[in-house]
Amino acid sequence: MDQLLESLSDIENACWTELERASAERGHPWRTMSLATTDGREAHARSVILREVDREARELLFFTDARSSKVQQIAQFPRGTLLVWSPQLGWQLRLRVTLEVETAGLAVSSRWAQLKLTPAAQDYLSPLPPGTPLAQTTPERASRGHFALVHAQVRTMDWLELLPQGQRRACFDRNGYKWVQP
């Protein structure tokens, strides 16, 4: 940002604009997010790639392998946290989300049709679940594999600006927004 944003509504709008840009621009620092989930005993964090943003629905979309441990964790404990940092903006954004995995239907099929001819499709075609030790020979690949969608419904947005002249922090949810102590 070239100028300091003062209005809370402008800051929230700018966050959503950056998320939309991140889903479309490969080099955007917010495209790769850290997703934290739990299995009930421990926290688990991993990187996910932001694929789509629906500002009006307050929803983000990621792809995953339906056999991954995060899918099992989401089924049991559907709440998670996403974290991103942009050194260019000096912004950290922490999103508390409700997660849902979709493994079948038109939404999954239509996105698979776009993805299946790209190198990224290979991640979902492996007959082995993520994390499985590899043997000397790799089994044959599947047709659609284990491609699934993860929907992340944003419940709260926690924005932190880290600048040499000081820090600012604000929180946003469906009920409004407020400045908070950094």
From TrEMBL:
Pfam families: Pyridox_oxase_2 (PF12766). GO terms for molecular function: FMN binding. It comes from the Bacteria. Residues 16-101 form the Pyridoxamine 5'-phosphate oxidase Alr4036 family FMN-binding domain. SUPFAM superfamilies: FMN-binding split barrel (SSF50475). This is Pyridoxamine 5'-phosphate oxidase. The lineage of its organism: Bacteria, Pseudomonadati, Pseudomonadota, Betaproteobacteria, Burkholderiales.
